[in-house]
Amino acid sequence: MSRPIKVAVIEDDLPTSNQLKLWIESAKPDIVIEQWFTRDDAEAAIERENYDLIVLDIELGRERHAGVAIINAINKLKATPVLVVSAMPATIYRSIMKALDAWDYLQKTTFEESDFIDTFLEILRAVKERKQHQEQNVKSKNSAESELNMDPLRQRSPIWRGQRINLPLTAQRILATLFAKRGQVVSYEDLYEVVKSGRNRENIRKHVSTIREAFREIDPDFECIENVPMRGFRWADNSNTGKQ
C-alpha cells in the first residue's frame, strides 16, 4: 500500500498558513500536511522528511529571503517540487524563483482559492507522472514514449527520463508539436503556427536548438530531434538521428 501524499507548508503568518492548509485539505482530503513557521524548523524538517510538494513563502520572520535559502537546501537534498506563495512582486520574483528551479510562483492578494488549488493539483499530477516515469525507466529505456512525458494542452514541465526539462513556453509548444507527430516530418510552416512572433526558419531553428540543449543538460546522448534539410524537423524514436 502506497503512503499518503505528504506536503509541507512553510509560512510564518499563522492565518495564511492555516488558510493554505484548508485549501489543500479541501482539494485533497487524504493529504498529510505539516506546517512550519521558521527557517530553522523548515530546513530541519526538509532534511528529515520526504515531502512530495512544498508550499513556501520567501519572507519568514525578519529574514527577507529565507525562502531562497530553503529552496537551495531543497535542491541540494532532494529536489522536491516547490510552489512559492509570496507577497513579493511576481514581475520581479517569478523569474528569480524559476532560476532557482521552483515549479511555480503565486503572488499573495492577486490570486483566488481556485487559482491556488488548480496550480497545486497540477504540480501534484506532474509529481505523480514523474514518479511513474522513474519507475518505468528502471524497467526499460527502449521506448521514447516512456521517456518523454508532457501535456500538450498545458504545455508545462515536460519530463524526460524522470527529470523535468526547463523550457520557454514557445519551445514547449514546438516540442509538443514534434512529439505529437513523432516519426513524421513537421514542416517549418506547421511550426510557424505555434509561435507568436519570429515566423521564419532561423527563429524556428533557434527554438529547436534551445530544446536540444535543455535535453542534453540531463541526457548528453539525446538525439531524438532530427533535422530534415529544407523541410523541417522530426521526432525520431531511435538514436540514429541527425543533428542540426
UniProtKB/TrEMBL annotation:
Keywords on record: DNA-binding, Phosphoprotein, Transcription, Transcription regulation, Two-component regulatory system
Domain of life of the source: Bacteria
Cited InterPro entries: CheY-like_superfamily, OmpR/PhoB-type_DNA-bd, Sig_transdc_resp-reg_C-effctor, Sig_transdc_resp-reg_receiver, WalR-like, WH-like_DNA-bd_sf
Gene3D superfamilies from the UniProt entry: 3.40.50.2300, Winged helix-like DNA-binding domain superfamily/Winged helix DNA-binding domain (1.10.10.10)
SUPFAM superfamilies attached to this UniProt entry: C-terminal effector domain of the bipartite response regulators (SSF46894), CheY-like (SSF52172)
Span of domain Response regulatory: 6-123
Stored Pfam families: Response_reg, Trans_reg_C
Modification 4-aspartylphosphate occurs at: D57
The keyword Transcription regulation belongs to this UniProt entry's keyword annotation: yes
PANTHER family cross-referenced by the UniProt entry: REGULATOR OF RPOS, TWO-COMPONENT RESPONSE REGULATOR ORR33
Protein name: Response regulatory domain-containing protein
Protein source organism: Cellvibrio zantedeschiae
Source organism phylogeny: Bacteria, Pseudomonadati, Pseudomonadota, Gammaproteobacteria, Cellvibrionales
